[in-house]
Amino acid sequence: MSGAGAPDFFYREAQRLGYVARSAFKLLQIQKQHKLIKPGSSVLDLGCAPGAWLQVACQSLGPLKNGGTVVGIDIKKVKVPSLHCDARVQTFSADVLNLPKTQVRALSPKQKGFSVILSDMCPSVSGITTKDAALSAELGMRALDLAVGRAASAHPVDDRGEEHPNDLNSDPDENGVLKSGGHLVIKLLESEDVKEFSQICKPLFRKASWLRPKATRSSSREIYLICQGLES
């Protein structure tokens, strides 16, 4: 019963509890283990369709009086789910690959950035393993770039293997939209490329670890990189 599309335990539980997709249980597990989203958090959900992570993120903020905000962005137009969401949740339709950081930052409270960035973005799967992994890595790198900006390539390596600092006169749009001390979750498809993400993220965050949630189908190669505490 674990094949793609089969109505397994998590599918049935999602229907029973009012979640729009079984993927809700992936973020519920991440939240239970790492407690990334707290009352008052500002959350950016990249690739938010169909809205299950919006539901869990809003629930994790606690009662409406606690404040906080959840902003979802997806290339598709996504309606905010009626269950588990409230006025703190809003969605925007845009292609994250072409969205300037200044526009993303403008969606955050007081335009000061987000405290949690979630990327559950996934490419249209072709079935060609290497191609799908490469597309997934591209989306993951975009999420990382949005979050930390030039910090992701603070010491680029040239063709001779020598490090050299970034140009200090770079565009201000290169600054990331994740607040200092903030958290980042990136979904990737397992491949050789995922090691690169660990190498980039570990120096930037207090902690970086991998998780394959229990709700992940056995046929899936999805894995999540959990980055906690962006260093200032």
Name the features:
232 residues; alpha/beta; Rossmann fold; 7-stranded mixed beta sheet; globular
In brief:
The chain is an alpha/beta fold. Helix content is 27%, strand content 22%. The protein has one domain (9-154, 166-230): 3-Layer(aba) Sandwich (Rossmann fold).
Explained architecture:
This protein is α/β, with parallel strands linked by helices and 232 residues long. It has a single domain, classed as Rossmann fold. 27% of the residues lie in helices and 22% in strands. The chain is built from six helices and seven strands. A seven-stranded mixed β-sheet has the order 3-2-1-4-5-7-6, sandwiched between helices. Helix 2 (24-34) runs parallel beside helix 3 (52-60). The longest helix has 20 residues, at 129-148. The relative contact order is 0.15.
Topology diagram in text:
Elements: H1 9-17, H2 24-34, E1 42-46, H3 52-60, E2 69-74, E3 89-93, H4 101-105, E4 114-119, H5 129-148, E5 178-189, H6 194-201, E6 205-211, E7 222-230
Parallel strand pairs: 1-2, 1-4, 2-3, 4-5
Antiparallel strand pairs: 5-7, 6-7
Counted by DSSP, the helix tally is: 6
| CATH architecture assignment name | 3-Layer(aba) Sandwich
Silhouette: globular
Structural class of the secondary structure composition? alpha/beta
- SSE succession: HHEHEEHEHEHEE
| N/C terminus separation | 46 Å
Residues in β-strands, percent: 15-25%
Write the CATH fold name: Rossmann fold
Major sheet strand order? 3-2-1-4-5-7-6
Helix proportion range:
25-40%
- CATH superfamily (homologous) name: Vaccinia Virus protein VP39
Instruction: Report the sheet with the most strands, covering strand number, pairing sense and barrel closure.
Output: 7 strands, mixed
* Uncertain residue ranges: 1-5, 155-170
Count of domain modules? 1
- Number of E-state strands: 7
C-alpha-based Rg, rounded? 17 Å
At the first level of CATH, the class is Alpha Beta
Mean pLDDT: 88
